[in-house]
Design goal:
Elements: E1 33-34, H1 46-55, H2 68-78, E2 85-88, H3 90-102, E3 108-112, H4 117-125, E4 129-133, H5 143-149, E5 154-160, H6 172-180, E6 187-191, H7 207-212, E7 216-221, E8 234-237, H8 240-247, H9 257-268, H10 270-294, E9 297-299, E10 305-309, H11 318-327, E11 330-331, E12 333-334, E13 343-347, H12 351-365
Parallel strand pairs: 1-11, 3-4, 3-5, 5-6, 6-7
Antiparallel strand pairs: 2-8, 7-8, 9-10, 10-13, 12-13
Helix pairs in contact: 1-9, 2-9, 3-4, 5-6, 10-12
Length: 366
């Protein structure tokens, strides 16, 4: 068979840079501290194991295609109508469903320069055009620039709030200003994966804005504060018309039975969530203070991670720091793919991991 006879993907697919997750391993070390994917150092709620043990699920049967148990648990926790909730195989799937449902060739999807890489991937996968908008010099989303980039072809605007990998956020007043400036046919997608960690009076995850408007969607995840990244659970809150449309595209059994049970148990355990918040609040400030004392700059973060900026001096660069830390078992996240080649993202980990990586950074910068 000649190369001209080979099957070819549709136009645009080979233009997609595949998503590369944070590394998990470091070779040649006795113990590895994975601080590359913003996972919870506390793990899931103990109630998850109890719920899974009690369920005795028959894995020969299909799961509930509507994930009623999980949607009901979410609705009770936040006081929402379950008809306005859709669950997915991680929030990544839901972002893709929105693109598949609302974008076509010739349409545009907007996101910020340092926003989540999945936005670009899913926009391209839908055959549409990705449009990246510069952040401010402080790595905060720039509302005026976003609004200035909107055209008649714009159909979706993605805003990670707080943003990954910068850890910065927009106050609710700016989010509302952004929404007010968008045409009614444009959907504002508020990716609130790290919302539970934010303790700022001027922050809102997006529930109020969705409740009051038909063109706003909020996505959330169980992968971060709930410690269930391995089960891939996400949910979105949107107007019934958006849920109705996305259900036409969604796979019929996109959330597995164990994930439904685990998610319902996790979101109902508010004590565990608060424990995770308290751990993050305790260590976020300590880690930032210690890193800055070493002489490195850190972007102010409201999430469970920090963005560390390294000099371009040979021997002290981000790439060399990554190699040095990995050789000692500390695996951080390179963020060159986010347009930040001189930085590393560090997840707030356990006490042992936090203290260890600080000492390793001290040694590297000495």
């Amino acid at each position: 068979m000649s190369s001209t006879d080979m099957p070819r993907p549709k136009p645009g697919v080979m233009d997609i840079a595949a998503y590369v997750p944070g590394r998990e391993t470091a070779h040649g070390v006795a113990k590895v501290y994975k601080l590359s994917s913003n996972e919870s150092p506390l793990g899931p709620s103990p109630k998850v194991a109890e719920a899974l043990a009690a369920k005795n699920a028959n894995l020969a049967l299909y799961p509930d295609g509507s994930a009623h148990v999980l949607r009901d648990a979410i609705s009770r926790t936040y006081g929402l109508n379950p008809d306005n909730i859709m669950c997915g195989n991680g929030s990544d799937e839901l972002l893709g469903l929105l693109c598949q449902t609302y974008l076509a060739p010739g349409d545009e999807g907007l996101f910020t320069d340092h926003g989540f890489l999945v936005y670009r991937i899913q926009i391209l996968a839908a055959g549409a055009t990705p449009v990246s908008v510069p952040d401010t010099d402080d790595l905060v989303a720039d509302v005026d620039r976003i609004l200035g980039a909107v055209t008649e072809r714009t159909k979706l605007v993605f805003l990670a709030n707080p943003n990954n990998p910068t850890g910065t956020y927009l106050p609710v007043s700016e989010v509302r200003r952004l929404h007010a400036g968008l045409p009614g046919h444009v959907i504002l997608v508020l990716d609130a994966a790290y919302a539970e960690y934010v303790r700022r009076n001027d922050y809102e995850a997006g529930i109020e804005l969705v409740s009051a408007n038909p063109n706003v969607v909020m996505t959330r995840t169980f992968s971060k504060i709930h410690g269930l990244a391995g089960l891939r659970i996400g949910w979105m809150y949107a107007h019934e018309a958006i849920i109705y449309a996305c259900n036409r595209v969604r796979g019929p059994f996109n959330v597995n039975a164990l994930a439904i049970t685990a998610g319902a148990a996790a979101i109902s355990d508010r004590t565990h969530v608060e424990r995770a918040v308290e751990h993050n609040e305790k260590w976020l400030g300590r880690v930032v203070e210690a890193i800055e004392a070493i002489g490195l700059s850190v972007t102010p973060s409201v999430g469970n991670f920090v963005l560390i900026h390294f000099p371009t001096t040979p021997g002290k660069t981000a790439a060399e720091a990554d190699e040095y830390l990995s050789s000692r078992g500390y695996v951080l996240r390179r963020v060159a793919g986010y347009g930040l080649p001189d930085a590393l993202r560090l997840t707030i980990g356990s006490e042992e991991a936090n203290l260890g990586v600080i000492e390793a950074l001290k040694s590297f910068m000495a």
